[in-house]
Amino acid sequence: MTCYFCSQNAKEIDFKDIDVLKKFLSAAYKIKDRKETGLCAKHQRQFARAVKRARQMALLPYLP
Fold first, then answer.
1. 61: burial class by Cβ within 10 Å (0-12, 13-18, 19+)?
2. Rounded to an integer, what distance in angstroms lies between the CA atom of residue 19 and that of residue 15?
3. Any bridge partners for residue 25, and if so which?
4. In 10 A of CB 14, how many CB atoms?
5. Does pTM top 0.90 for this prediction?
6. What is the rounded CA–CA span in Å between residue 35 and residue 62?
7. Residue 52's domain spans which residues?
8. pLDDT digits (tens, 9 = 90+) for 2-46
């Protein structure tokens, strides 16, 4: 299984791109772990940071 962001040649994960972020969140808006998402370690860290920034900017909810 290849990383989604590596296959897209993404340099940075944009926290404003909510549709992409929601693909890797659970139904309760929790961040899924690497085994479930299939992301590499680098992009999993960037993804977690992007989700946290999106929550801070009120683009994603903290709770469902």
1. exposed
2. 10
3. 31
4. 12
5. yes
6. 22
7. 4-56
8. 999 999 999 999 999 999 999 999 999 999 999 999 999 999 999
